[in-house]
Amino acid sequence: MIWRVYFRFFSIGVIRFAALSHAFFAFVLIFAIIIHIYAGIWVKGSVRAMTRGVVTPGWRRKHHRALVREVGRGMHSK
Q1: pLDDT at residue number 26
Q2: Alpha-carbon distance 60 to 78, whole Å?
Q3: Is 63 a catalytic residue?
Q4: Which residue in 22, 36, 64, 76 is the catalytic one?
């Protein structure tokens, strides 16, 4: 094992556990990134919002109702 010289202070059991946990968490992270990208594309209007910085009123109402209510109150109080 080429890296063994750098980890000579650890037992083989610890090294095996570290390698297994590293592989597991790498899988989880890659899976989460793929799901995150898929969800960003799946929700209609999200890509346009990320690239242009604007959303339609319908999208805003569907995904951020509290913000719409808050902004609506602010506009009516002026």
Answers
A1: 98
A2: 22
A3: no
A4: 36
Task: Report pTM.
Answer: 0.58
CB neighbours (10 Å) of residue 43? 13
Q: Which comes out higher in pLDDT, residue 5 or 24? A: 24
Q: pLDDT tens digit string along 13-71?
A: 998 999 999 999 999 999 999 999 998 888 888 888 888 988 888 888 887 888 777 77
Show the CA angle centred on residue 21, arms to residues 10 and 28, nearest 5°. Answer: 160
Token pair belonging to 40: 């960003």
Contact 68, 60 (CB under 8 A): yes
The 3 state secondary structure assigned to the chain is: CCCHHHHCCCCHHHHHHHHHHHHHHHHHHHHHHHHHHHHHHHCCCHHHHHHHCCCCHHHHHHHCHHHHHHHHHHHHHC
